[in-house]
Amino acid sequence: MSKVQAKRGKFVWYDDSLPFEERVEAIIKAMTVKEKVSQLLHDAPAVERLGIPAYNYWSEALHGVARAGMATVFPQAIGMAATFDTDLEYRMGCAIAVEARAKHAAAKRLSGDSSTPIYRGLTFWSPNINIFRDPRWGRGQETFGEDPYLTGKMGAVFVRALQGDDPKYLKLAACAKHFWGHSGPEAERHQFDAKISRRDATQTYLPAFKKLVTEAKVESVMGAYNRTNGQVCCGSAKYIRELLRKKWGFQGHFVSDCWAIMDFHLHHKVTPDQTASAAYALKNGCNLNCGCSFEKLLDAYEKKMITEADLDEALRHVLMTRMKLGCFDRDELVPLAKTPISKVHCAEHRAIALEAARKSVVLLKNDGILPLKPTAKLNLTGPNLTSLPALWGNYNGFSDHMTTVLEGIAACADPGTSFEPRSSVPLNGPAVDLSARSWLYDKKFPVVAVVGFDESIEGEESDSTERNTIALPASQRSMLDYLYKEGFRVVLVVMAGSPIDLREDVKKAAAIVYAAYPGEAGGTAIAEVLFGKVCPSGRLPFTFPINPKKLPDFHDYSMAARTYRYMKDNILFPFGFGLSYTEFAYSNARVVDSLAKKGRVTVSANVANVGDCTGDEVVQLYISHTKPGVEAPLVELKGFKRVRLEPGESQRVSIDVPAEAFRLVDAQGRWFMPKDDVEIFFGHDSRTLASKVLTVKLAK
């Protein structure tokens, strides 16, 4: 038994019959100033004399428990967004919570003293709910896309799944990040000041954060590296104390992004040195520092830049999270605390990963070549054909069931047929002359070309070079140009976390499939779609532009001409787009319920599968103001449902739209109810009507 474990029975904070608040106050009262400072760093050491074990707050679970060895690898967040399936998102989050608890329990056993090492804790810095406002941003893959409504829905469901619904304990502590205004450019994030209008802040950048705080009760919020409107995001009283805590009622702890507080004096120049930066962050509401700056809080205390009461306030929020996680209670009282390691990557979780991968695949073009016959002879090529990184994206775990596209095709194709994997061009390199290697491809058969990116091309600043373009690397583009020139029918499979310039491919490819980073079962799911074992049902969570050169300046955070909500043209594939192997028809759309009497309207329509195969339709509901009187989105998603229909089957689908969905924002950032009429319709996507346009009158 360790010194820490031996002393536990002596302290009141281990008395699980007492309220958490009383126990937290007892710890704070017992600690010295030096001990208090030590507990405000992400890597909090043990306080042996008080029986408190070491705890590292840094763990990741964006799409599965990450950086902790074996885990179920679900599709990257952008792929989960493409499912438009909140029930699936919830089941994925519950699976992650189970695996995280199992790993945490195992780590405590292995440590011998109940300490928690990095990536084995219960405080997870996920989800990323920043708005994917620009396709050049390397971290867009980590988000739920460009729409604040979809982002808020998926993010809130994920938080509830991770944290659970026990009235006393949290399964895990989720974290809403990065607060706020973080969406590129990555290379300048340590000194960049995002200039965001009050209208754009209220209408686009902040709604998902508000939803996760006020509705999902997220336990933690992480600040962004950048400044937003002159305020350092990890040390702004305006954003942390006034907005998060006072206005939204945030009760959890606020954590800095990793080493972000160092940026205060090194890059943002709002403080003179590290001690001042640490004091500035603490005084303005940052409770926990990922990094090393809060080590200087002892120096700041001695210089009277902060008080012990400032330390106590931060410690109160941080320790309360550990209390809610059951870190000071008997395992038998805490949900999932005794989860066996056998739950990690179990069959149930692998099945969810496969379902998610299947539902995330988006069919962008099909001239009739798909689905392929299992007996079809194929040329197979492309740098992502056998790529593992293209399955897992970033912030990922690893499993022993990673299925590449080649392996998936091998499993789906008829054993009696043949397919030929051909040597490919590099993922990222100069153009390649393939004319001298024409023997590589059999001219009689189609080519399945698996292209795209991985995190070496798009990702976080520390991981990759951010793109100044959304074009495929020259090596891949030269390969495709050669195939088109030679007259091959090309089935293009794109594995990437963001839009890619596909102008030429839309004209020349026989089919295009977008698969994001689909997780461990990605190869299986892609092959099943190609061969028709699964009817494609994913929908784009972002817009593919036609001409990347027409995109606004990357540094400009105005929403004008960005995303489907504000783009009038330059749209190749719109938000919500996705083809199927079957067809769906809408009829008898109508608005029921009174907005004035019930505070909502219910919009319903008959949705019928009029094609030849079973398929899922993502029913999307959009609104558009006729005469808003202020700058307003052109069209906005306000509801969605995924329905599965057999051939010939019809279902009445209803979506409730609350009154607040019709509000707009004035120039001062204030919500108001306009008096115009609102057009409301079901769409196959954000640009294609599926039903007649209905009218909701807002004026009294």
Would you kindly provide a written description of the structure presented here, covering whatever features stand out?
With 700 residues, the protein is of the alpha/beta class. Among the domains are: 347-542, Glycoside hydrolase family 3 C-terminal domain (Rossmann fold, 3-Layer(aba) Sandwich); 584-697, Sandwich (Immunoglobulin-like), CATH 2.60.40. It is 28% helix and 17% strand. It contains 21 helices and 25 strands. The strands form eight sheets. A six-stranded mixed sheet has the order 9-14-13-12-10-11, sandwiched between helices. A four-stranded antiparallel sheet has the order 20-19-24-25, with no helix packed on it. Helix 17 links the parallel strand 12 and strand 13. The longest helix has 26 residues, at 86-111. It is globular.
**Strand coverage percent:** 15-25%
Task: Find the CATH superfamily of the domain at 347-542.
Answer: Glycoside hydrolase family 3 C-terminal domain
Q: What's the level 1 CATH class of the domain at 347-542?
A: Alpha Beta
The CATH architecture category of the domain at 347-542 equals 3-Layer(aba) Sandwich
Low-confidence stretches: none
Please outline the helices and strands.
Elements: H1 3-7, H2 20-30, H3 33-38, E1 43-44, E2 55-56, H4 77-83, H5 86-111, H6 148-163, E3 175-179, E4 193-194, H7 198-205, H8 207-214, E5 220-223, E6 227-228, E7 231-232, H9 237-247, E8 253-255, H10 263-266, H11 274-283, H12 297-302, H13 308-324, H14 347-360, E9 362-366, E10 378-381, H15 389-392, H16 405-412, E11 419-421, E12 447-452, H17 474-485, E13 490-495, H18 503-508, E14 511-514, H19 522-530, E15 544-545, H20 563-566, E16 571-573, E17 584-592, H21 595-598, E18 600-609, E19 615-625, E20 636-645, E21 650-658, E22 664-665, E23 671-672, E24 677-683, E25 694-697
Parallel strand pairs: 3-5, 4-6, 5-8, 10-11, 10-12, 12-13, 13-14
Antiparallel strand pairs: 1-2, 6-7, 9-14, 15-16, 17-18, 18-21, 19-20, 19-24, 22-23, 24-25
Helix pairs in contact: 2-13, 4-14, 5-6, 5-14, 6-8, 14-19, 16-19
